[in-house]
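S.,

Sequence below, as promised.
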Amino acid sequence: MGDVGVLKKKTMICTPLIGQSVEQMVSEMKKAKMEGADLVEMRLDYINDFHPQRDLQIILRNKPLPVMIVYRPKWEGGQYDGDEHSRLEALHLAEELGADYIDIELKEDVASIFIGKQKMDQHSTCKTIVSCYVDGMTPPIEGLSCCVARLQSTGADLIKLVINATNITEITKIFHLLSHYQMPLIAYSIGDRGFMSQVLCPKFGGFLVYGSLEGSPVSGLPTLESLRQAYQVQYINEDTKVFGLISKPVGHSKGPVLHNPAFRHLNYNGIYVPMLVDDLKEFFSIYSSPDFAGFSVGIPYKEAVTGFCDELHPLAQSIGAVNTIIRKPSDGKLVGYNTDCEAAVTAIEDALRERRYPNGEASLTSPLTGKQFVLVGAGGAGRALAFGARSRGARLVIFDIDFDRAKSLADAVSGEVKHYEDVVNFQPEKGAILANATPIGMHPNTDRIPVAEETLSDYQLVFDSVYTPRKTRLLKEAEAAGAIIVSGVEMFLRQAIGQFNLFTGGEAPEELMREIILSKF
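The prediction came back faster than expected:
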């Protein structure tokens, strides 16, 4: 399988601190150390009524770990709006008092002036970081390379480049820079589409990765805990294979907390990250490297992504939906699979069998045979459920907000199609199965259910593909009405086990993955 990586050059984990008082900054430094940070980035421009002589001594005398000092002016996106000479004097004072790093801006010749004065002090051990924030549209790689060359020309010890990616495809420019420059480089994108630039920084040789304090979320940043526990970035190296969830949105995904510990458990050198994708065609044309070895596929791309696969597994082809893609090492071709189908249907079957045969007696016949199966949603997850239920002999009734999509699926599985607006008045057969394959009830809109509450007592079992929250309002109401309930968490676990087997070519640690599900969801 390949051994878990050991970093040749350690990538440090840095926590940005924006406390409004010196006391808060000192407290958060200690908290950052406890949560696993290697250093902190301290934003002096956020401190109210900041007095350099008084406050820097308190901060630096109490530092429990290395400190990077930043005093960002408004003209570079910061909070400081005072005299420039006073700002630079404060930074020089921080250097004298024991700061480990000083971050200074490239613009306005500030960096050259600061470094020139710093070099006159031959006893200083403080390292200078010269930074540049690229505002607006991310330029081509040639433009970013010119910017990095300007940063290097200042004579800085380290250089820092920050972009604001509007598309995940722009992140590859960051990876290119990290891989090709010999001097220590900090490079990343802010915002939700920049998340991957943080987590994969160690793979491409970045100097540090940023992580936020627990309880103080920052857009586009993982938490310190997730970097250490879920992603375990300390083990990522240049040989690490990248897997990820292609979806929009991706914030709800629990895949990283499930797949990454499973990789580590088997000493498999892989990392699983969320990928907020806006355009499938552009994404697959840019992320064509063997490093990106496989993908999970979520809402809303499970059907559309079939057009970007070079090959489809027969089940995925018949369903017309893919939730797993593997890049073949031999030729780079993308092969699409569907692990949703068996995951959902076996979860439903096992729940019915457990109620019917509590002592575990075997039954060769599926408990779905001959049952009315009411399906709300005809997208990727709905198609997987429909084909799975049909293969077990169930009779399908399908609702979807897109009638033509519902009719197409109904025709494919010899089912019955109904108009979506009729779902609230639909009266099922006694003992029918209800499956929700829409996002209705997903966090944060957790107060909705897709059917009329008074009909829930007619269903023997209710399944919800939504897994955040674990027990949706639909499942709570169904349980109160006496129905067997099956959470989307069970489907998620089973499809993830199937994906893991495809990702690694080995056997998933099912017991460990179930333990994670029970503790984290």
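The radius of gyration is 27 Å.

Coffee later?
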